[in-house]
Design brief:
Two copies of one chain form a homodimer. Chain A has helices at residues 24-27, 34-47, 60-67, 71-84, 134-147, 162-176, 190-204, 220-226, 243-249, 270-283, 337-351, 356-367, 370-396, 423-430, 460-472; strands at residues 87-89, 95-97, 120-121, 186-188, 209-214, 230-237, 240-241, 253-256, 286-290, 314-319, 331-334, 401-403, 410-414, 432-433, 435-436, 450-454. By secondary structure, the first copy, chain A, is an alpha/beta fold. An eight-stranded mixed sheet of chain A has the order 4-11-10-9-8-5-6-7, sandwiched between helices. The first copy, chain A, has a four-stranded antiparallel sheet with strand order 12-13-16-15, with no helix packed on it. Chain A starts with 23 loop residues before the first helix and ends in a 12-residue tail after the last helix.
Chain lengths: 484, 484
């Protein structure tokens, strides 16, 4: 009777000696992959200790007979695993399992557990990913890849694909008043990488701290810590970052969001812009302008970049994370010219440059005018959503006061003080998640009635429904009770 | 007569006052972009000092008349540039040019001059970029982007797209005997980024040096310097990295290329593999296995990875740079499990993760079996080219001795000693560029008759022609004169 070796367990009382049973399933597979399968099975058996170090292997003739494969195949197998160090052999005296120095394998922790929820999450900072122009991006990818010369597929220019730098310089100059030539711009993996490169640059040049806006973006803190810098929170008031408090810290670099402060939503006043530039000039310091959503202003033209006023005092950075998708990891950095060469080298040693295919696709997307259309599309949608949120609050929760200029992807909502104790349970009942402003202060502090509401990723019906549900879960509060 | 303002220079004797002439071209453009153009012109004039700080601007009415635009447009322009800090104004008392702290702009150096040459360059390490499967990659991009859920376009998992990690774990386990689960692998921007992440990890854990193969890859030296580590060259002999010399350095981390040493082309012997692992076990050290071309072996199955023997002692890294294109910046890192979490965090703070679109395309490309086909295609071409080079050398330069296993993208060619003084002029005459082995030693030393010949990026006719031309430019040397 022909034994089927593929059905475990193999019969104990038939031919092959039990020690080599573990190779049988591999030996009975299709001839084409047999050598590979046998090798994998033998390696695994040795690594896991199932075949102990010092075990003598059968002769090639015996094992070939046991496994019903050719002797040549077994010889090849032995030679291969001897070359790899799993087996040892000396001419004429046989083959043994080698002693491997492997430590027992530790279980690998899952780094990123998936979370999910059915609530309406007013998380700020997230664009509407359903607006990503998939087919236009696909077309840009295809067209760009077809046109790229072979040589462009080699190791890239770490500073960025020249045609993308040219298109970006035009865009930033035109839309944001940035002073930049194609050779003065670095393509990088989003604002996060720009901040990391700048943080390491500062560290390398003797700085040990950086000023961050308070409230501000909590993601910057660990990022600069990883770059070796201490983060010093500096208060933001109604005009922007406080220059007196900034000067008092003694630090010589600060991150600012002048066009639309995150998360308070204020715009830096002209006087404040001048004061910050004056601080940078006086201290030979550096302002890092994070223009994270500078393209989205709904009531007038966006305020031009701070960098345009003083290109030698400001490192300007932005990305497509709010206009296309954070997953593209496409951003730019325009540093003062004296910092450029060293930052390009840092980018080189970080990753040798961004992927060429995606850079070429983005360049084509920009050149075709499709990016401007995308900005207009997002602007239209986000403005509608902001209006819907403000209107829903006015209708259902008239006591809530909103602030922040008509821009960006979020606003600030302040509830009457007496609702503070009720809000956690009410928002849970209503299926609404609100982020307290205090999550964005350093250190985090409880702000039970002030929230940062991101609206850009939510549809109008969902925004309206969520606000109505929250209102229904709260007692009525007369508008007059709100302190102004 | 209607003056054409678009033809410079504007006539001096007509209406607008000379100080504002610089705004005329912008004002006479198409109405739609007029505000933007006017803003850009005014910003530029202020930035360059053409309009000095303290200059009083005309009233909105006067400037509107001079420029023949609406007064509302000028009002908007003044308000915009005041908000941006270019102008200052006090209610009722007019508008002035603000004082900008800008330093004079330094000229930006061109970072990457283009070089070109008409010679046949036997530069090692470069694949044939014309083999890049453009249409299949385009199809993978398109299909992957169409299938990605919206949520996948958000900030990525810094460790890598889960489906790509799954496909890579399967590939590496099957083809290279790497012991890895999808959760144990980090997607990164090529081997360069893997080495940078590992270098910084080592530095952070108190190491200040790393051992590198000598001869070896010269690109690793500055990369580890940038990570804060001193590079210690350790000799490579005919069996691989010298473990006695390695132990004598006292360092606790070493980069090795065991499957096909770069550039000597030897394969590490089983004894040497065991000795290196034993060194790592004894010193609690780390071996970094750069499997840069491990998929390309022409005479037998490639030797499996060193990592497979001892996953807790070896950090394994590789990329698509030799199989697809370096410009894709797609690579992987399989570290010992205890290092994983910290390396993922380092990747996060470096760039938040690789671009999702390209990761998804590569995952689709792997799953479809297209990557295996691409490896077979490259293998077939590179083998043919290697054979052509060896055959051309045997025919035209029989005194040249070649070495290196039948693998990879390059081989070593040793010319008779007496040709040393003649080779520079002869290769220049023949239009052939040869890289001396000494370019890959630390420190670089003259090796006038030993060269590393990369052949993978050259077609068979070009290889044959170049070798024949070189032979024609050299005197005949009898084979018997070569010392063996």
């Amino acid at each position: 009777m022909q034994t089927s070796w593929t059905t475990p367990p193999p019969p104990r009382d038939t031919d092959p000696s039990p020690a080599w049973e573990l190779l049988l399933p591999a030996a009975s597979g299709p001839p084409r992959g047999r050598r590979r399968e046998l090798g994998a099975a033998l390696r695994a058996a040795i690594r896991t200790g199932r075949l102990a170090a010092g075990t003598r292997l059968p002769s090639t003739r015996d094992l070939a007979r046991d496994l019903r494969v050719s002797r040549g195949l077994v010889s090849e197998l032995y030679a291969q695993l001897t070359a790899e160090g799993y087996l040892t052999s000396r001419q004429g005296s046989g083959t043994w399992v080698a002693r491997l120095p492997a430590a027992p394998e530790a279980p690998v922790p899952r780094a990123h557990p998936q979370t999910s929820s059915a609530v309406t999450d007013f998380r700020p900072g997230l664009p509407d990913l359903s607006l990503f122009p998939r087919s236009a991006w696909s077309a840009a990818q295809r067209g760009a890849l077809a046109r790229l010369p072979d040589a462009a597929l080699d190791y890239p220019d770490p500073q960025g694909l020249p045609e993308l730098r040219a298109a970006l310089a035009e865009l930033l100059s035109r839309r944001r008043g940035v002073v930049v030539e194609p050779d003065g711009l670095i393509v990088c993996s989003g604002v996060a990488q720009a901040l990391t490169l700048l943080g390491r640059f500062l560290k390398h040049h003797g700085q040990d701290a950086i000023a961050l806006e308070d409230p501000g973006s909590p993601s910057e803190f660990p990022l600069f810590t990883a770059a070796g810098l201490r983060s010093v929170p500096v208060p933001v008031d109604t005009e922007g970052l406080d220059p007196v408090a900034l000067a008092a810290t003694g630090v010589r670099a600060a991150v600012v969001t002048p066009a639309h402060q995150f998360p308070t939503g204020i715009v830096h006043s002209p006087e404040r812009r001048a004061a910050l530039l004056e601080w940078a000039r006086r201290t030979h310091g550096l302002l890092i302008e994070d223009d994270y959503d500078g393209d989205f202003r709904y009531d007038r033209a966006p305020v031009g970049s701070l960098q345009g006023l003083a290109p030698e005092l400001v490192a300007y950075t932005g990305s497509v994370s709010k206009s296309l998708a954070p997953g593209l990891r496409l951003g730019w950095l325009v540093p003062p010219s004296g910092m450029l060469a060293e930052l390009v080298e840092a980018k080189r040693y970080s990753d040798l440059g961004n992927t060429v295919a995606e850079q070429a696709a983005f360049a084509a997307f920009l050149r075709s005018g499709r990016y401007d259309r995308q900005l207009r599309l997002c602007q239209r949608h986000y403005r509608t959503r902001r209006d819907a949120l403000i209107s829903a609050l006015a209708t259902h929760l008239p006591a809530v006061r909103t602030s922040g200029i008509a821009a960006g992807l979020h606003l600030i909502a302040e509830f009457p003080t007496e609702l503070g104790p009720l809000l956690p349970a009410a928002s849970a009942r209503a299926g609404v998640r609100l982020r307290p402003l205090g999550d964005y202060t350093a250190p985090a502090r409880p702000t039970p009635t002030v929230f940062v509401l991101g609206y850009a990723h939510l549809g109008v019906p969902e925004i309206t429904r969520a606000v109505a549900a929250l209102a229904a879960a709260l007692p009525d509060i007369p508008v007059s009770s709100v302190a102004v």
